[in-house]
Amino acid sequence: MQKVALIGAKGQLGSDIVQYFSGLSGRYELTPLTRSDLDITNPEKVDHVLTSQKFDVVINSAAYVRVDDCEQEVNLAFNVNAIAALNVARACRDALCVYISTDYVFRGDRSHPYTETDMTAPINIYGTSKLTGEYLVQQTAKRSLILRISSVFGKAGASGKGGNFVETMLKKARAGDPIKVVNDIFMSPTYTYDVARLLDALLQEEPTGIIHGSNAGTCSWHEFATQVLSLAQIEHPIAPIPSALFPTTATRPMNSTLITDRLPQITNFKMRHWQEALSAYIQAR
Questions:
Q1: Which of 22, 65, 176, 214 is most buried when burial is the number of CB atoms within 10 A of its CB?
Q2: Is residue 250 part of a domain?
Q3: Which residue(s) pair with 31 in the sheet?
Q4: CA distance 106 to 122
Q5: Chunked mean pLDDT (size 10), the chain, 285 residues
Q6: Beta strand 57-60 pairing with 143-149
Q7: Is residue 203 a part of any domain in this protein?
Q8: pTM, entire model
Q9: 274 vs 285: CA distance, rounded Å
Q10: Residues facing residue 166 across a β-bridge
Q11: Number of domains in the chain
Q12: What angle do the packed helices 125-140 and 84-91 form, to 10 degrees?
């Protein structure tokens, strides 16, 4: 049985990890850690909590994910996404340090997807802070796994965002509100429950390095929104608009689609297509 510490246990991803791992009887002894349990920006507390038990794995799913706010809250973004990640990596000792990262470490200025070996070049503060976290974890922890995911949706919603994109679309459509969604930004939507399943498969092998763990396939945000309403059997128009007409504080990558070259070399587990994952999410609501 592996002793696993999970940081960010009440977050969108963390909640699904807790739920899924708890159902794997005899495989894990899971210690869920919330923000009230552990302030990861405090290195002394991090070291005390993570070394008080001899963990085999420490999963750090905590992050400051408000992409636009990161442009103004630069210190906060780096403190949580980078320096706190360093604190965790230092305290891992012999444990495998798993750091959850993002597609926003890429520039997103090309038409084809990014693999694990492609050059990173973030274009906003959030992506830069997460890439810095990747570097610090890799340079500090004896053993580390960087798992990049993208455009996540999960039943718990994102605590820092007050929900997720899927729920926002459903709420607006049911209220009869007009909906406009950009149609020229592409990504790989990712169901957090599937990431939890992937983590289980990976922990059986304990690989190190970088792995892309998004659901398969790619789509624009407009395509994603259209599929959300279709699966929920809601008829409501969604106007496609270019991103130039929807300015944001932080610049977004135009195509941050992720694919994996490494996963098939490590495990037989495959991330299902985003449409299948979205269907499962809608049915489970």
A1: 214
A2: no
A3: 5
A4: 5
A5: 96 96 92 96 97 96 97 98 98 97 98 97 98 98 98 77 85 97 98 98 97 98 98 97 96 98 97 98 92
A6: unpaired
A7: yes
A8: 0.96
A9: 16
A10: none
A11: 1
A12: 20
- Give the active site residue among 20, 104, 114, 126: 126
Residue 252, domain member (yes or no): no
In-domain check, residue 94 = yes
Helices 165-175 and 274-284 meet at what angle, rounded to 10? 60
Annotated catalytic residue 126 = yes
Beta carbons within 10 angstroms of residue 217's beta carbon: 17
Structure tokens at 19: 């739920």
Strand, helix or coil at 145? Answer: strand
Alpha helices, DSSP H, located in the chain: 12-22, 43-51, 67-70, 74-78, 84-91, 125-140, 165-175, 192-203, 221-231, 263-266, 274-284
CATH number of the domain bearing residue 266:
3.40.50.720
Identify the domain containing residue 142 by its residue range. Answer: 2-156+189-216+258-271
DSSP assignment, residue 256? -
